[in-house]
Design a protein that fits this description.
There is one protein chain. This protein is mostly beta strands. The longest helix is centred in the last third of the chain and has 20 residues. It has two domains: 133 residues, Immunoglobulin-like; 113 residues, Immunoglobulin-like, CATH 2.60.40. 14% of the residues lie in helices and 43% in strands. A hairpin with a 5-residue loop joins strand 4 and strand 5. The structure holds 2-acetamido-2-deoxy-beta-D-glucopyranose (5 copies). One 2-acetamido-2-deoxy-beta-D-glucopyranose binds next to loops. Keywords: Signal.
Length: 276
């Protein structure tokens, strides 16, 4: 064999053995509760694929092998995806393409991350990565009022079972209420519960009534929804008013009407006392 024959062989074979991923299809956003998702890795192996063709899927980097297919064998599901994959799913009838894709049944939020498809032969390799976020818009989302004191109302907005990290904002006349207090908790499954409360004084409401809006946002999931509540100033507290009515003083309210009200209360007590 002379050198030119070697050379021609190399050129021809570098074509037939090349592997090339045309397109990787991974849904960027998946709502929790979705029945199934398909991760696909569409590749070319040339006319005659080189020996040692292997299709692998990794999760969050090269140490997280989750799926491997060596045609014509059956595909294998490994680690994180074990028990989550439809083993009968075939994306193509072509023997060298059939099991390149993964159909994940009912994906959970813990499957959020980077998915990498690697197609290789003994001498060539190509890979591509896409991320998938399985988000949870929550199980319950409420915006309620707690009317314990005259002249004051507590707005309470609660959303549960969210993923990823949520942002909860109470809007008054379209602007976020800066004095609102937010409490965020994460359970052992990584799901968030968030509660935002705001104390509103009747003096803050300049119209006969005001509609407050609580906005729930999952920034990474592009998800936004809201709830509203309408407050009418001047309503009496809904329960145990006679005990609770003294408390506004603790909230440093300095309106004269509030002081007047407390004076009236004291007068009332005194008059009852002296009557007895
Ligand atoms: C996922 O991919 C993004 C963007 O490529 C990267 O910034 C991030 O570090 C990756 N995360 C992991 C866990 O590999
Ligand atoms: C995978 O990576 C994402 C960030 O890209 C991270 O939020 C997630 O916790 C990682 N998942 C696991 C199981 O390591
Ligand atoms: C979120 O929405 C913005 C604007 O509509 C868009 O550019 C971005 O790609 C979206 N992100 C995802 C993950 O879909
Ligand atoms: C609240 O949701 C409604 C309906 O989805 C939308 O029309 C409105 O703009 C939202 N309000 C705010 C303040 O985000
Ligand atoms: C307290 O009174 C001052 C002066 O009258 C007023 O500017 C301020 O807004 C009041 N604060 C509250 C919490 O009502």
């Amino acid at each position: 064999m002379n050198y030119s024959i070697h050379f021609v062989f190399l050129i021809v074979c570098s074509k037939c053995i090349a592997v090339n991923i045309n397109r990787i299809v991974v849904p960027a956003l998946v709502e929790l509760g979705t029945e199934s998702v398909i991760l696909d890795c569409d590749y070319n192996t040339g006319e005659v694929p080189g020996p040692g063709l292997v299709i692998k899927w990794f999760f969050n980097g090269s140490t997280g092998l989750v799926y491997q297919w060596i045609p014509p064998l059956q595909p294998q599901v490994i680690g994180l995806l074990k028990g989550k994959v439809d083993m009968s799913f075939k994306i193509s009838d072509e023997p060298l393409q059939a099991y390149r894709a993964i159909r994940i049944i009912n994906p959970g939020t813990h499957l959020s991350g980077n998915y990498t498809c690697v197609v290789s032969t003994f001498i060539a390799e190509d890979s591509q990565t896409r991320s998938m976020l399985v988000y949870s818009p929550g199980k319950s989302f409420h915006f309620d009022q707690e009317k314990k004191y005259v002249f004051l109302v507590t707005l309470k907005c609660v959303a549960e079972y969210l993923y990823p990290r949520p942002v909860l904002t109470i809007l008054s006349k379209g602007k976020p209420l800066e004095r609102a207090i937010t409490d965020m908790r994460m359970d052992s499954w990584g799901m968030y519960t968030v509660e935002t409360t705001a104390l509103i004084h009747d003096d803050d409401v300049t119209s006969p009534w005001e509609e407050f809006v609580c906005v729930l946002n999952l920034p990474l999931a592009n998800y936004t929804t809201n709830r509203t509540t309408v407050y009418y100033p001047g309503l009496m507290p809904t329960h145990s008013a006679s005990i609770e009515v003294k408390k506004p003083m603790e909230h440093q309210a300095n309106s004269s009407t509030l002081r007047l009200e407390c004076t009236l209360l004291v007068t009332l007590f005194l008059s009852i006392y002296f009557t007895l």
